[in-house]
Write a structure and sequence with these properties.
about 20% strand, about 190 residues, Spore Coat Polysaccharide Biosynthesis Protein SpsA, Chain A, alpha/beta, single chain, two-stranded antiparallel ribbon
Length: about 190
């Protein structure tokens, strides 16, 4: 279902950059992409969408530290619950998906009142940081603190996020790079 909602035109973006990059062998945020570090490319995507705020989650120099180190993307999402002010709508994009385009991401920002993601792709995602979502994310933080593993898919189900069906062209953008071979393929095709 591709419900569209009227949203406040202001939204913020969280770039997930807190992973260990163990399979890549180097910090993904620092990889060169189109003449600049990948983190700069991802920030530029967010700014070009009109994001009111761009934060980097986790990682060295991150703006929003993960509450539980090594707990993956769920920890960065849980950190959003601790933000006191700012836009109610958040776009969350992983550092390792440089082929994402503004039109693709705009679909997520505008879809589903609670949140949205592309079918079979839990990231990128959009969510509304309302009281329900904050409660879910606080629960995720508590579970992570107890050593439990929480997936992004679980969080999406808990907040009632809408699955958006990507077009074939959009599927080509929903590719991430976790290994040097995957990175080489992406950069050759970009």
């Amino acid at each position: 279902m591709n419900d569209r909602i009227a949203i406040d035109p202001t939204f913020a973006t969280l770039i997930l950059a807190g992973g260990r990059s163990s399979r890549m062998g180097t910090d993904k945020a620092c990889l060169p992409y189109r003449g600049a570090p990948l983190i700069e490319h991802m920030k530029n995507i967010a700014w070009s969408l009109g994001s009111a705020r761009v934060l980097v989650g986790g990682g060295p120099g991150g703006d929003l530290p993960d509450p539980i180190a090594g707990a993956g993307p769920a920890a960065s999402l849980a950190a959003l619950a601790g933000l006191e002010a700012g836009p109610a709508r958040w776009l969350v994009i992983p550092i390792d998906m440089p082929l994402l385009t503004p039109p693709l991401l705009q679909r997520l920002v505008a879809a589903g009142p609670e949140g949205a993601f592309f079918t079979d792709h839990p990231l990128p995602l959009a969510l509304s940081l309302d009281s329900h979502t904050r409660g879910v994310l606080q629960g995720v933080s508590a579970s992570l603190a107890k050593g439990q593993s929480i997936s992004v898919r679980h969080i999406l189900a808990q907040i009632g996020a809408t699955a958006v069906t990507p077009t074939p062209g959009e599927l080509d953008q929903l590719v991430n790079a976790n290994t040097p071979d995957e990175w080489d393929k992406i950069t050759r095709e970009a």
